[in-house]
Design goal:
Rossmann fold; alpha/beta; binds adenosine-5'-diphosphate; about 50% helix; 9 helices; single chain; binds zinc ion; 3-stranded antiparallel beta sheet
């Protein structure tokens, strides 16, 4: 099963993608996580990506597409994957379609996690991320067992550099300009499924499971 997660920054794509990956035993591929790992390791790719991410802008397609194609050609992707944060532009979607088409395969579902802008700022200001494993929490909605410590690996939690309110505003406008057109793109392909992302995490997941299993 090949699944794409769509939705504004902070809509809960990552949270749901991890649950899907666990449930169906397919890899969770987050381009944001790949960029952040490169930033931590101070690779040239990481340094370049960081200059865009810190401003709340998209990393250029040329860079992003290469990384994604490389990742999905990995052996562990042969039974499918869940993409979180890719595609974010129409050209990125076209590249993915072509790559999947060349294998005589297709994307099965584009799951759009719908959350209005008003809720996003609150989601993002409370988000905390693990410095080591990338696990995500929310101080109010999904608090870790111990304050500022990752449940999974015990490392400290931080506020992501790009989750500051000024940057979030820019990310939201970038989302509306460059990424939201993908909703139409996948609607036309007949694989768009929209879920109400304002519900509780487990309710959203139950809705997604219903879609994937229908
Ligand atoms: P969120 O879903 O909260 O926006 P991500 O971790 O998906 O966070 O992305 C963080 C940042 O990484 C984005 O704002 C963007 O700069 C960069 N990024 C991630 N994926 C892509 C992509 N597919 N194309 C371009 N930039 C990307
Ligand atoms: P995205 O990957 O779309 O940027 P995340 O999955 O990181 O979004 O979620 C953004 C923030 O909102 C995180 O702090 C997360 O814990 C929290 N969150 C995710 N889903 C929900 C939900 N359904 N209700 C409340 N908070 C949520
Ligand atoms: Zn951790």
């Amino acid at each position: 099963m090949k699944i794409i997660m769509l939705g504004a920054p902070g809509a809960g794509k990552g949270t749901q993608a991890k649950k899907i990956a666990d449930q169906y035993q397919i890899p969770h591929i987050s381009t944001g996580d790949i960029f952040r790992a490169n930033i931590r390791e101070k690779t040239p790719l990481g340094m370049e990506a960081k200059s865009y991410m810190d401003k709340g802008e998209l990393v250029p397609d040329e860079l992003t597409v290469k990384i994604l194609l490389d990742r999905v050609s990995n052996e562990d992707c042969k039974n499918g994957y869940v993409l979180d944060g890719y595609p974010r532009t129409i050209p990125q979607a076209e590249v993915l379609d072509r790559a999947v088409g060349e294998l005589n395969e297709r994307i099965d579902f584009a799951v759009n996690v719908d959350v209005p802008d008003e809720n996003i700022i609150k989601r993002m200001s409370g988000r905390r991320a693990c410095t080591k494993c990338g696990d995500t929490y929310h101080i109010e909605y999904m608090p870790p067992k111990k304050e500022n410590v990752c449940d999974k690996c015990g490392s400290p939690l931080i506020i992501r550099d790009d989750d500051k309110p000024e940057t979030v505003k820019n990310r939201l406008s970038v989302y509306h300009e460059q990424t939201a057109p993908l909703i139409d793109y996948y609607e036309k392909k007949g694989i768009l499924k929209t879920v109400d992302g304002t519900k509780d995490v487990n309710e959203v997941f139950a809705d997604i499971k219903n879609i994937l299993e229908s």
